[in-house]
Amino acid sequence: LLRLLEAQLQEQRREHEEEVETLKSQVEAMKEEMERQQQAFLQTLQLSPEVQVEFGLQQEITRLTNENLDLKELLEKLEKNEKKLKKQLKIYMKKVQDFEASQMMVQTERRRHELNRQVAVQRKEKDFQGMLEYYKEDEPLLVRNLIT
């Protein structure tokens, strides 16, 4: 048990150290990006006002272009998703129609079966003519069946 806990502790320590190294590299990359942006900003301040405006416009154009590309990519993803969902909807609509058609067939078959039973019952009634023999104790049952 102690060895197992020790092994788990070492594994957690190793994962922690890896995570710390990853975070340190991210911080270093951010520092470099910040320094680059500061240099660009300082260079921009040294430019004439007209050039500063033009530089700002170029940066804004670049930002908007990147944003438009991101939006275009998102639009394409949404259009693909829409097409996929429309296909699924068609499939489900077909399944619903098939199910409704099968239910109608089942109901039609039931009606035919009921009509056949009614016809059979009518034929049976026509076949029997004359007197009926029964036991006295069966009379209430016979009357009830005749009524229903």
Descriptive tags:
mainly alpha; elongated; 148 residues
What does the secondary structure layout of this molecule look like, with pairings?
Layout (H helix, E strand, L loop, with lengths): L1 H45 L2 H79 L11 H9 L1
Taking all Cα atoms into account, the compactness measure Rg is 43 Å
- Beta-strand percent range: under 5%
- Name the average pLDDT: 86
Which sequence of SSEs, written as H and E, runs from N to C?
HHH
How widely separated are the two ends? 80 Å
Overall, the morphology is elongated
Which structural class fits the helix and strand makeup? mainly alpha
Low-confidence stretches: none
Tell me the major beta sheet.
none
Provide the helix percentage. over 70%
Beta strand count: 0
Continuous helix count:
3
Protein name: MYO5B protein
Keywords: Coiled coil
Describe this entry's structure for a reader.
With 148 residues, this protein is an all-alpha fold. It has a domain of 39 residues. It is 90% helix and 0% strand. The chain contains 3 helices and no strands. The longest helix is centred in the middle third of the chain and has 79 residues. The mean pLDDT is 86. It comes from Eudromia elegans. Keywords: Coiled coil. This is MYO5B protein.
